[in-house]
TrEMBL record:
GO molecular function: 1-phosphofructokinase activity
Gene3D superfamilies (alphabetical): 3.40.1190.20
CDD domains in alphabetical order: FruK_PfkB_like (cd01164)
Pathway the protein contributes to: Carbohydrate metabolism; D-tagatose 6-phosphate degradation; D-glyceraldehyde 3-phosphate and glycerone phosphate from D-tagatose 6-phosphate: step 1/2
Keyword Membrane: no
Keywords: ATP-binding, Kinase, Lactose metabolism, Nucleotide-binding, Transferase
Family note: Belongs to the carbohydrate kinase PfkB family. LacC subfamily.
Catalytic activity: beta-D-fructose 1-phosphate + ATP = beta-D-fructose 1,6-bisphosphate + ADP + H(+); D-tagatofuranose 6-phosphate + ATP = D-tagatofuranose 1,6-bisphosphate + ADP + H(+)
Keyword Manganese: no
EC number: 2.7.1.144
Described purpose of this protein according to its UniProt entry: Catalyzes the ATP-dependent phosphorylation of fructose-l-phosphate to fructose-l,6-bisphosphate.
Protein name as catalogued: Tagatose-6-phosphate kinase
Length: 308
C-alpha cells in the first residue's frame, strides 16, 4: 500500500493577471482552486496512474473540507489529523512570471504530531510512505528524521521530497527515494549545480549516505538518476510550459507508480520525467493519457561511468 504524508497541505489559488503591477490594484482574469501540498499532489497523480493510495497529514477548517471533498471526488482515501485552524491558501500568481506566496499553515500541537507518528508507526512492511513538502514551524524540525527511523524499523519504504533544512536533516537516513531539483541539491552541498556531471557527483553522495534511488530534476534541462553504479540521464520532451507547480511531485508519483508495479529503474525514471513534463504542459496536474503520450518522447540513456 502507498501512503502520502503532507504536513502542510494547501488550497492552491491560481490567479492570472495581465501585466502585474506591484503595489497597484490588479484585476485577475482566470482563477482556479486546487487541492495542494506536495504529498496531496503525489496522491492525485498516483491515482491517475492507477495506484490506489491513502493521504495522511494535517488538515482543518473550511479549506480542509474543500481538500477532502476533492480527494473524495478523485476516489483517494484519506486519514488526516484535524487541526484547530484552517489549512493554508497558497497563491500562485501567473503573469509575465510565476510568483508563489505560500502561507505558514495552522499551528500543530504536540498531541496532533504524536497522533500522526502513531499512524506512520502502523504502516506495514513493504508499504511506501511519501513524506513531501515543508515542515510547519510548529512541528518538530526533525519530523522526517523520526519518520524515517520508524519506517526503517518497520521495513517501510520512505520517500522524502522536501527542501532546505528538512532536506539537510534527512541526508544520512535510509530512504527509498529522494528527488531534489538541482538548486536544492546545490544548496545542500553549498555549491551551484549547472551540469549533468555535477548532478551525478552530488547525487552519488546522497546515494552513499542512504538514499537507494536519487533523481535530480533540472527543469527544462532534463533529469539525472543515480543508484549504485547506474547513472542515467533523460531529456525532457518539447512542449509549451504552462505551469510548473506540482511538476516535481508528479515525477515522484511517476517513479513510484512504475517501480511499485514492478518496473526496472530505467522505465520508472522515464515515467517520472514524462509525468513531470505532462504536468508542466497543462494547468492542473497531469492525467494518465498525457503521461502515456509523452512517454515515447522521453529518452533515457546511461552515462559513461568513466566520466565521473
Ligand atoms: N521547460 C520544461 N520543459 C519540459 N518539461 C519540464 C520543463 N520544466 C520542468 N519540466 C518537467 O518537470 C520536472 C520537474 O521540474 P523541476 O526541476 O522544475 O522540479 P521541481 O523544482 O522539483 O518542481 P516543483 O515546481 O514541483 O517544485 C522536470 O524534470 C520535467 O519533467
Ligand atoms: O510550502 P511547501 O510545502 O514547500 O510547498 C507547497 C506547494 O507550493 O507545493 C506544491 C507544489 O509542489 C503546491 O501544491 C503547494 O502550494
Amino acid at each position: 500500500m502507498i501512503y502520502t504524508c503532507t504536513l502542510n497541505p494547501s488550497v492552491d489559488y491560481i490567479i492570472h493577471v495581465e501585466q502585474f503591477s506591484q503595489g497597484g490594484l490588479n484585476r485577475g482574469t482566470d482563477t482556479a482552486y486546487y487541492p495542494g501540498g506536495k504529498g496531496i499532489n503525489v496522491s492525485r497523480v498516483l491515482q491517475q496512474l492507477g495506484q490506489q493510495n491513502t493521504a495522511l497529514g494535517f488538515l482543518g477548517g473550511f479549506t480542509g473540507v474543500f481538500i477532502k471533498q476533492e480527494l473524495d471526488k478523485a476516489h483517494i482515501t484519506h486519514d488526516f489529523i484535524e487541526t484547530d485552524g484552517p489549512t493554508r491558501v497558497n497563491m500562485k500568481l501567473k503573469s509575465e512570471e510565476e510568483t508563489e506566496i505560500n502561507g505558514p499553515g495552522p499551528a500543530i500541537s504536540e498531541e496532533q504530531e504524536q497522533k500522526l507518528f502513531q499512524k506512520i508507526a502502523n504502516l506495514n512492511k513493504g508499504d511506501y510512505l511519501v513524506a513531501a513538502g515543508s515542515v510547519p514551524s510548529t512541528v518538530s524540525s526533525d519530523f522526517y528524521v523520526k519518520a524515517a527511523e520508524i519506517c526503517r524499523k518497520n521495513q517501510v519504504n520512505m520517500i522524502a521530497d522536501t527542501s532546505s533544512n528538512a532536506l539537510k536533516k534527512i541526508v544520512g537516513q535510509e530512504v527509498f527515494l529522494v528527488k531534489p531539483n538541482h538548486h536544492e541539491l546545490g544548496e545542500l552541498f553549498d555549491t551551484t549545480i549547472t551540469t549533468v556531471e555535477d548532478a551525478v557527483y552530488y547525487g552519488r553522495k546522497l546515494h552513499e549516505q542512504g538514499a537507494k534511488h536519487v533523481i535530480i530534476s533540472m527543469g527544462g534541462q532534463g533529469a539525472v538518476y543515480v543508484s549504485g553504479d547506474m547513472y542515467l540521464q533523460a531529456n525532457v520532451p518539447a512542449g509549451e510550459v504552462r505551469n510548473t507547480v506540482g511538476s516535481g511531485d508528479s515525477m515522484v508519483a511517476g517513479f513510484l507508480a512504475s517501480i511499485s508495479a514492478g518496473s526496472k529503474p530505467e522505465k520508472a525514471f522515464q515515467t517520472a520525467v514524462a509525468a513531470g513534463s505532462a504536468t508542466a504542459f497543462q494547468d492542473d496536474l497531469c492525467e494518465r493519457a498525457d503521461v502515456d503520450s509523452l512517454l515515447p518522447h522521453v529518452t533515457v540513456h546511461s552515462l559513461d561511468k568513466g566520466r565521473f
